[in-house]
Amino acid sequence: MLEDPAVEAPNYVYMRTISPEEAPDTPTVIEIGFEKGDAVSINGEALSPATLLARLNDLGRDNGIGRIDLVENRFVGMKSRGVYETPGGTILLTAHRAIESITLDRGASHLKDELMPRYAELIYNGFWFSPEREMLQAAIDRSQEHVEGTVRLKLYKGNVMVIGRESPKSLYSDQLVTFEDDQGAYDQKDAAGFIKLNALRLRTLAKRG
What would you measure as the largest C-alpha separation in the chain, in angstroms? Predict the structure, then answer.
């Protein structure tokens, strides 16, 4: 049955999670703490990596989180349907992206997004000990030096929702993003010159036809 990607996977194939429909009607709110990109605590309790993931697996399981149905491109060249359960991983990924959103600057964030598919592909294909994986690892580790803080999440019927994030290394500034009283930090009139210069290449191409 799983070989046909058009057919829904039956509920009995899932061993680690309950279905979202069977999850509690009351959401679960948790807080995950990060240091240098690594999750180190849940609700203020310091935990080892293994214990932390096991705890998140339990929380995800109870809230119907982490069921994934996808078609993969195998290393050998064929496509294969995969049905996976990763309750803890789903929660952790959402939290990690949330803390990165306020601690990584735009350039570093975009570069990391470009590198991660290649990094994941190397691991998936069995090249953990390859020099190219180690090169990417060094860049990723460097990107995580200031990724610390806490993320609050709401777990509810298969969903992981970010409801708060804060960090002592945050790059987010309410003075910069305000459109009211910005105290000179950002003048909307400055955008006119930026837009004009940013479109110079396109205007040049348009003249050529």
Answer: 63
